[in-house]
Design brief:
Order of helices and strands: EEHHH
Largest sheet: 2 strands, antiparallel
Number of strands: 2
Distance between the termini: 118 Å
Structural class: mainly alpha
Shape: elongated
């Protein structure tokens, strides 16, 4: 005799036709075991995932802390470089170094001239055209 599931509306349960109480009990126990095992597997997977997320978050926090330390060090280096730049470019310091090492004298008014008085740079002597350049320099080398 085959058994079939059917709802028992009077008691609000499901019964198996042709099954004894002990069979029903074993089926229910098997169902609860499967459900319990499934819940345990889900909990283990959730715990392992949570541990992984926690570990990754700790790694990222450590990396962020390292970056903040690096940024602070770079800012200190920048501040030091700016202070050094300010010191090196101090006009009074440059004036003192110029007086010490360059031995410059103030410019006299008669040392200035107009741009029209500046002599033009002489043109270099050489061939007047590209063909003359080829004939005088390149062709003799090729014929050797």
């Amino acid at each position: 005799m085959s058994s079939a599931w059917y709802p028992d509306e009077a008691h609000g349960t499901i019964s198996i036709v042709g099954a004894s109480d002990s069979t029903l009990r074993r089926v229910l126990i098997a169902c609860w075991r499967i459900i319990g095992l499934s819940v345990m597997v889900i909990m283990v997977v959730a715990a392992v995932s949570l541990y992984g997320f926690k570990h990754e978050a700790q790694d990222r926090r450590a990396h962020i802390a390292d970056l903040r330390v690096d940024i602070a060090e770079e800012r200190e280096k920048i501040a030091l470089a700016e202070a050094e730049w300010t010191t090196l470019n101090d006009p009074a310091r440059i004036q003192a170094l110029a007086e010490q090492f360059l031995e410059l004298e103030p410019m006299a008014p008669d040392q200035t001239i107009a741009m029209s008085e500046v002599p033009m740079r002489p043109q270099p002597e050489g061939p007047a055209s590209i063909s003359e350049l080829i004939e005088t320099h390149l062709l003799p080398r090729l014929s050797e």
